[in-house]
Input
Amino acid sequence: MRSLLFVPADAPAKLEKALGCGADAIIVDLEDSVSPERKAAARDAAAAFLAAAIGHPGVLPPARPYVLVRVNGLSTGLTDADLDAVVAARPDAIMLPKAEGAASIMHADAKLAAREALAGLPDGHVKIVAIATETARSLFLAGTYREASARLTALTWGAEDLSADLGAEANRDGEGLFLDPYRLARTLCLAAAATAEVLALDTVYVDFRNEAGLRRECEDARRDGFQGKMAIHPAQVATINDVFTPKPEAIAKAKAIIAAFEGQPGAGVVGIGGVMYDRPHLAKAQRLLGRAQAAGVAIDR
Output
């Protein structure tokens, strides 16, 4: 998943439009973008959208966007009602906000398992994407996600709720760059995802009219190891997809590294054009080709 677009669950027209915007995933939001008095109506709207968008169970991503539902956090008392409304409609995943380590994932796993059984769905059908940095406490638990649940497929991070929890006045400087507490949260999310062997997804860029700033932040995220980024506006999707789709020169270099190791079985280091590449370079090359194929890029072996 390169691009994941947030859409309020109680905005049917926006949800319908999102299906054709090119996003790899749509996040149907029951949390922050829905006011308390609209929660019940939003659940009904989310279930109706899921039924229409997912359609036949055999139609899977990438033939259609991956569809997640961001439920309300476990501490709100609203999660059960959210899951009661949407699990039977077969979302691909839920997004769990304000996650606090493995215990949160195991708690959500149990809730999903019970509802899958009631709906006649296979155990583990609904995956979990967790927002891992929205509370101060969560930062100290970032290293606990490994093997928390087979449902966990990705970790992402957030700065808005974290800044509120910290009592901060701002989370970015005058140039739009994250301040130190949030750079720490970003790094912890990246390390947590690598430890848990799941996707690392970068947070939203809220200045949605600033394409240059978005591109810069996407490029920084890709450079550091994130595999995708969340979006808050359809206009951001094309830039995110472009940055996180491996370019021909990067694909060519990856193929050359892989071919060199294949030509020297058992070698720990190979030389290409006067540059030495070792096994970690091979692993990165293989991952890059995997991302390219997932993005629909044809790879001529």
In short: The domain at 3-244 is CATH 3.20.20.60 (TIM Barrel). The beta strands are 3-8, 25-29, 66-70, 93-96, 127-131, 152-156, 199-202, 228-231, 269-272, 275-278. DSSP finds eleven helices and ten strands in the chain. The first strand starts at residue 3 and ends at 8.
